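User: Show me sequence and structure for the first protein, then do the same for the second.

Assistant: Starting with the first protein.
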Amino acid sequence: MKKPSSSAPKAKPAGKAVRAPVSKLYAVILAGGRGERFWPLGRASRPKQFVDLFGGKPLIRHAVDRLRGLVPPSRILVVTSRDLVPATRKALPMLRPDCVLGEPEGRDTAAACALATAFVHRRGGPDATLCILTADHLIADPAGFRATLAAASGVCARRDVLGLVGIAPTRPATGYGYVELGAPFAGPGSAPGFRKVARFVEKPNLGTAATYVASGRFVWNSGMFVWRVATFEEALRRFRPALAQAVLDGILPAFGDERKLRAALDRVYPTLEKISVDYAIMEKASNLVAVRGDFGWDDVGAWPSAGAHLGSDAAGNAVHGLVSALAASDNVFVNTQDGHVLAAMGVENLVVVHTADATLVCTREAADGLKALVRGLGADPATARFVK
């Protein structure tokens, strides 16, 4: 599901650690992606989660570091593509090697979530609780983020519910999925702020989105979820029995033996239905609850939104690297090459990104269509033949 970016406030201090209210809390970081919207810095071999423009470390490292004090590294799992496992392990040396799990091919988030839940089942048992998180977002208030996850994990561990972390909307964005919040979720094991989910709405038009934001009843669907292993597996068996059988019977028994696991993944994964967890499970479940997150979330989905997190000059140009700009305003300039000057004059509302082997120039508005350009260059833009 495509989501547009939103500018987040400047990062706050990390603050105190938040103790998880459950004894067996795991975190799963989904780290797919092919780097298309951050080309030429992002590549198929170095997708968005490895971009290190923000705070001097890659986004996937931010995703792990902001869990500090809530989930120990021994209970953090990353699900990525098999070809990115070595790079992921290198970026995250604090994780156990077997906690970086490689899919032989992408089958969307329902398969990834089922696989991750099976992994946690083997490690922590059916009563373990896990958070499904993202590898390529920025969060300005990590302490607030941890507090939200702690509250959600407590509710999902005590009640037979699937939890969704919604984002308090800051504007009527038309590219997000929206979730309407219903009645308060009350009773034993609940917590303040949790509400039942009334419905999902996919990408409304601008007028409808404005109505949603004004109502105060809607949140953006962040793609972050919390559930107990047994609760998700029950929903999987009910709504996607073929996927449940394939993963729970075909892959779960192989965990603990690397050779058997690889063989099971190669045998089973190509047969799995390619569908998002939203469509497969969440939009069908009646036991879904949501909590509103307000911790400065930004999906930094493309170059224009990334500019909000870079240094800027007096003319509103977002700048990274050696850049000289004259009579230029409201641009994004990224230069990754030491000793090379990126110079611009008399331009506005452009995105200019220079790397060792490619340079991108486009308008801010056109940047959302970068996938089409990259696909036109070939499967690997670094080696594609360019038209003279």
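Switching to the second protein now.
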Amino acid sequence: MTTKTAVIGVGVQGERHAQKFAALPDSNLVGVVDASTERALSVADALGTEAVADYRELIGRVGAVCISSPTSTHYEVTKAMLENDIHVLLEKPIATTMDEARELVELGEQRGLVFQIGHLERFNPAVLAMADLVAEPQFIESQRIAPYKPRALDVSVVLDLMIHDIDLIHSFVRSEMDSVDAVGRQVFSNSIDVANARIRFKNGCVANVTSSRISMKTERALRVFQSDSYVSADLQSKSVTSYVKKGEGPVETPEDVRIDAQSFGDTDAMLDQADAFLKSVKGGGEPLVTGRIGMEALETATVIGDLAANK
């Protein structure tokens, strides 16, 4: 039996979500919602579904929604859906404040609903491959830069871009934070456009995280250093290379290092994410990125954002 679904917010990213929910056999996309009636009608017409004027009109009509509206609306829209027993796949970040996030998580748990946060990189095959190679990270370096676009400017680059890497770092380190230092600057918008953070964890791991939305190119790089290996991932091209020390003692020649490269080519992380969400809705277990995981990423991002804004 298919799940009746809808997508709320069909801008560039939301339209892509709608395309996935229209394509999946477990989904019956009954409508799309957008603040722009013209935009909603255009996307609905392309996908053979209905343009719905107000997200509240979905209550009683659908069993699950994907919310891709601006971050400032996440709390209001998600709360309305959860209160009416509708499962939610919510674009990151989970909310703008920890109080909002906590309330949404507790509401979803109380009602026994699937509340999944759209940290899309978790479904990147390069990240999935890294998970098998990373055991005890000692130093992590990430860089996520992108050209300036007039979208998602209701939040800083920390909540817009850096939060992806914050979530991945937490998934690898699994230790409480010890200290954070951060700096950020406004350049083109009224919020922070470029930021760097240094996170120290209680287990000794250190992460250096850089994000910018005013670059001339797009780059999503993640590097993890361990006691006997170095793992480098290009999340844009979906490739991973590991450099592993073969024996005991220091490396003295190139032959002392085993190099393994993997490339995953054409995959669709957004389709995989939507499919996993629907499987959880149908009783397939807890989602990969629960509301509590999304809340953890927001908490770190909030600390970084506050520090960066005051330096």
